């Protein structure tokens, strides 16, 4: 089966939105998948994810404590990737 990068981006973002705030094992699975395949997520979507994670944590709606650990892990990974991509573009 083949999937386009655009389709993956859409599905990844929808899965992210589904999981953010839920108290379920799906959070850890989705975070791991997003980190593992982050090179296929465009910069705009990564930035939206970072912003939405920040907002959900600030408003106390990111899920259980273990979920917040996962969301912070994803946020840090996405920030690092965005910084690397920005550096590559500048060079």
Description:
This protein is mostly helical and 91 residues long. It has one domain (5-90). Helices cover 75% and strands 0% of the residues. It is built from 4 helices and no strands. The protein has helices at residues 5-19, 26-36, 43-58, 65-90. The longest helix is centred in the C-terminal third of the chain and has 26 residues, at 65-90. The chain is globular and about 40 Å long. The N and C termini lie far apart (36 Å). The model has no long low-confidence stretch (mean pLDDT 91).
Number of domains: 1
Approximate shape = globular
Strand content: under 5%
Number of strands: 0
What is the H/E string? HHHH
Rg calc: 13 Å
Keywords:
about 90 residues; mainly alpha; globular
Brief summary:
The chain is an all-alpha fold.
SSE arrangement:
Layout: H1 5-19, H2 26-36, H3 43-58, H4 65-90
Helix pairs in contact: 1-2, 2-4, 3-4
